[in-house]
Each structure stands twice: as C-alpha cells, then as structure tokens.
C-alpha cells in the first residue's frame, strides 16, 4: 500500500487518491498531490521574460489586449502600477490591477513584462 500523507484539515490517515487529487473520506477535503513538495514553486508568478513578479510591482503590457464589453483595447506599452498577484486563479488571470481609462482588470502574467 502507498504511503499517502494524512489529511491537512483533520489529520485523518484514511486518505485516498482520486485522479490527481488526494481525498479525505472523513471531512471531504480535497487537495492536489503535487502541491506537497512544490508549494514554493507554485506560488512564484513570472512575467513574459521570466522575471519574478511580486505585489506592488509595475508592469508594461507587451501586446494589444481586447477588452470584453468595450470597443477600445489596452494598447501595447501601457504601464500598469501597483499590481496584486492572485495565486489560486482557475482561469489563468493571475494579476489584478487598475488601468487608467478601464478600471479594475485581471491580466495574465504572460502578456506583461516587469517595468
């Protein structure tokens, strides 16, 4: 039998694998198996050039971005100040920010470079 870790929520020893997730049958908590050893690597967000981003950084948009619900777009070279990183984003948008003329936005780190 495999040596699976105990549940981080209730410390139950009866955890089991369900695909890529570990599941606790006692408290129904689910967590990813790969997050056990790579928690530091998963929390690092890098820009398009590979520079590590952190909260409060300024970034520059590297390509024109269409904005849903608007006829205008965010132009290449637009500088965005004081970003906030989102680590648990399901849609890939891992930067929250405010852009002048557009308001609050979410961006992907792959379309920005550190300023």
TrEMBL record:
Highest taxon of source: Bacteria
Family: Belongs to the YjdM family.
Pfam families: YjdM, Zn_Ribbon_YjdM
UniProt source species: Romboutsia maritimum
Domain Protein YjdM N-terminal: 4-32
Protein YjdM C-terminal domain sequence ranges: 45-115
Name the UniProt record assigns to this protein: Alkylphosphonate utilization protein
């Amino acid at each position: 039998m495999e040596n699976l870790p105990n549940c981080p929520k209730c410390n139950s020893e009866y955890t089991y694998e369900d695909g890529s997730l570990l599941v606790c049958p006692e408290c129904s908590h689910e967590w990813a198996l790969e997050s056990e050893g790579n928690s530091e690597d998963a929390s690092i967000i890098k820009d398009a050039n590979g520079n590590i981003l952190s909260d409060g950084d300024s970034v520059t948009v590297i390509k024109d971005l269409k904005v849903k619900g608007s006829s205008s777009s965010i132009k290449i070279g637009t500088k965005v100040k004081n970003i906030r990183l989102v680590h648990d984003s399901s849609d890939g948008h891992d930067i929250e920010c405010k852009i002048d003329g557009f308001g609050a936005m979410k961006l992907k780190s792959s379309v920005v470079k550190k300023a």
